[in-house]
Design goal:
single chain, alpha/beta, 60s Ribosomal Protein L30, Chain: A, Alpha/beta knot, 2 domains, seven-stranded parallel beta sheet, five-stranded mixed beta sheet
Length: 267
C-alpha cells in the first residue's frame, strides 16, 4: 500500500529503531542484512540523486527544508518513511550532532568493469577518515574500481560513508581476498602492471609509464603493505620526498599517484 503519511515512532526500543541502531554499530549486521545507514542531508542527496531508493527514511522536526524535500520525494516509492522526535534521532545517530535525517539503503552492488585498466587496491587501511578520503579522491580521478583487501576498515561503516561524501555511489567499491584479486588480475585482456606505493625504494612515479593498464596498491597507515601485497606487486612506485619525512599519509599518497596517472593519460 502506498504510504501517504510518515509512521510516527517515539520509543527507542521499537524494533525498527533497534534495527537501524544495530546497522550503525555492527559490521556483522551490515554484512548479514546487506544494508547500511546514511546520515545527513548531503549524503542522502548523493544517494537519492544516483537513483538509490532507501529501504527506510527516518527524519525529525529538526530537518531543514532542503531535507524535507528529499523526504517528500520518497512518498509513493517502496520506502518506509518514519518520523521520530528530535531527541530520539539524536540517540540513534552515530554523529555528535545529527542533521535530522538518516536513510537505510541496500549496500550498492558494484559493476565490475570488463576491462579494468585503472584500479586502486587498498591493503590494511584501518582509519575510516583515510578510507573515505581515498574513495572520494579515487572517484574524482576517474578510477574504474577500488578493491579493499583483507585488513581494511569496513567500507560501509558510518564514518567511512561520511568521509567518502557520496563516492560510494559513483565508484565501484568491492571487498576481495588476495586469491580473488590475483584471479581477477590474471583474467584481464591486457595484464596490468601492479604498482606498490613506496616511500623509500622503487622507481619515481613520473618515470613509470602509467598510460598502460595499471593497478596501484596503497598500504596501511602504520605498517604499510603486507606480504600478500608485496608478493603480487610487479614494481615499486616511489613518491620522492626531498623533505625530512619518512612517509606520507595513505590518502595523500593515493591522491598523488592517482593524479599522476590522470596527468599522464590526459596528454
Amino acid at each position: 500500500m502506498e504510504q501517504k503519511q510518515p509512521e510516527f515512532i517515539s520509543s527507542f526500543k521499537n524494533p525498527k529503531i533497534q534495527f537501524i541502531r544495530e546497522l550503525l554499530l555492527s559490521h556483522k549486521a551490515r554484512e548479514e542484512n546487506h544494508a547500511c545507514v546514511l546520515e545527513g542531508v548531503r549524503l542522502a542527496e548523493e544517494a537519492i540523486g544516483s537513483g538509490i531508493i532507501p529501504q527506510i527514511a527516518v527524519f525529525s522536526d529538526g530537518l531543514s527544508e532542503r531535507g524535507m524535500g528529499l523526504v517528500n520525494s520518497l512518498f509513493g516509492k517502496p520506502c518506509q518513511i518514519i518520523k521520530v522526535p528530535q531527541d530520539l534521532l539524536s540517540r540513534i545517530s552515530a554523529t555528535e550532532s545529527d542533521q535530522g535525517l538518516l536513510l537505510v539503503i541496500e549496500v550498492p552492488k558494484p559493476n565490475f568493469p570488463s576491462r579494468a585498466d585503472f584500479v586502486l587496491i587498498l591493503d590494511g587501511i584501518k582509519d575510516p577518515g583515510n578510507m573515505g578520503t581515498i574513495l572520494r579522491t579515487a572517484a574524482a580521478a576517474g578510477t574504474q574500481l577500488v578493491i579493499a583487501a583483507p585488513g581494511c576498515v569496513d567500507i560501509y561503516s558510518p564514518k567511512v560513508l561520511r568521509s567518502g561524501m557520496g563516492a560510494h555511489f559513483s565508484l565501484p567499491v568491492i571487498e576481495m581476498s588476495w586469491p580473488e584479486i590475483i584471479q581477477t588480475h590474471q583474467k584481464q585482456p591486457q595484464t596490468p602492471g601492479i604498482f606498490l606505493a613506496e616511500s623509500s625504494l622503487g622507481k619515481p612515479i613520473w618515470e613509470i609509464d602509467f598510460t598502460n593498464p595499471a593497478w596501484v596498491i596503497i598500504g596501511g597507515e602504520a605498517d604499510g603493505a603486507g606480504k600478500e601485497a608485496r608478493d603480487v606487486a610487479t614494481e615499486f612506485a616511489l613518491i620522492p620526498m626531498p623533505g625530512k619525512c619518512e612517509s606520507l599519509n595513505a590518502a595523500i599518497a593515493a591522491g598523488i599517484i592517482l593524479f599522476e596517472i590522470v596527468r599522464q593519460r590526459s596528454k
